[in-house]
Amino acid sequence: MEQARVPVPPIGLTRKYPGIGTGPVPARIYHDAAFYEKEIEAIFKRSWFMIGRVDQIPDPGQFFVYELPTFGHSILICRDRNGAINGFHNVCSHRGNAVEHRDCGKTRAFVCRFHGWSYDLEGKIAAIRDEAGFFDLDRSRLGLKRVPTGIWEGFIFVSPLDEPEQSLEEYLGEQGRDLVGYPWSACTQSYQWQTEINANWKLVMDSPAEVYHIPVLHPTSAAPTMMASGNPFGRLLDVEIKGPHRTNSHYSVSAEPNPVQKLAYTNAAAAQNVVQETTEYEMPRGLNPTRSQHWSVDLVTFFPTLSFTVSAGMYTAHQVWPLGPSRSLYQQRVFVRRAGNAAERFGQENTMVEFRDVVMEDLSTLESIQRGLDAGRIEAFNYHDHELALRHQYEVVSARVAAYEREQSGAVGQAERS
Ligand code: FES
Ligand SMILES: [Fe+2]
Asked: Does residue 293 carry a pLDDT above 90?
């Protein structure tokens, strides 16, 4: 069937942000080990990280354990008897063993498997075996150490710092406020896959953050939809920059699905939606910011490394964890509602595989780029207008690290003067 032609999204996104410039961007920050160490201090330790949803632990006593790969922290999240969600370092205060070894479960107390100290759901010490043999223990100081924990739209966030510089609300800022009201909690089920890549964290963020590559790298997966009917370069509808965060708004018109897609889409359409067709919600202002009728999906990014792919009916979370200057862990978590029958499950599985394949195509270029960077063969990047997100990332990273360097030199200067 012939597609109706629609206007091609224009060039001109970068000009919306005159301060961001148009020149080549230095590539050093993608492989310099000293710069990477500063990024951890200046950026990652000062951010909040989404580690799950409240729906994972609906009942008192339910818990899950989550590793923060960049920091080596094991975090224990549980719901207490009052229904509050608590975050603790998963470290026993006797001699440091992990207090909970299971990934998730339900319990009345956390009992360390080394010497049997136990803690209640508020993290307070509950029992110390043979307590008479210890010397002047102060029980009030022996509870599990709390991790700053916050909740936004049902997502649980933690801070790697004991005393975060910003509240979660401040960190999420305008980007967070503009996404309130999307039916995030309609998806009670999720699955996650992950892979380690020999590439800097920013490279991993870059791949899905631009569409200039869509027709070339994704000729049979994403391109047929994004390029259909008059968008031969797969251009974006818009890029909205909000402080350190940003949203890429994607254009598409439906292309002719292949036979498997047709079966999945037509027999199981409802299962792919976070909302039933009968459920209505008002699209938050942060999604489809241009209110285009050709909108398909937004890539909503919370700096530095959390992104959501959000459409009218479903969403996926992407998280990149830096492991070194040239190594990262990528995680993709797809949120769906419970399938009502086998056909719906088939539709969900099909979508999951489609998502995974597009991301795997994205990741396929990264290790060779990193080798070129590590060998010093790439000195600067020239970004297309629709690669604006990468230019913005460079701006934010550079500014944060420069501010950190000033802070450090100020602290050194102060120490020398005193
Ligand atoms: S380390 Fe946990 S009880 Fe000893
Ligand atoms: Fe891509």
From this structure: no
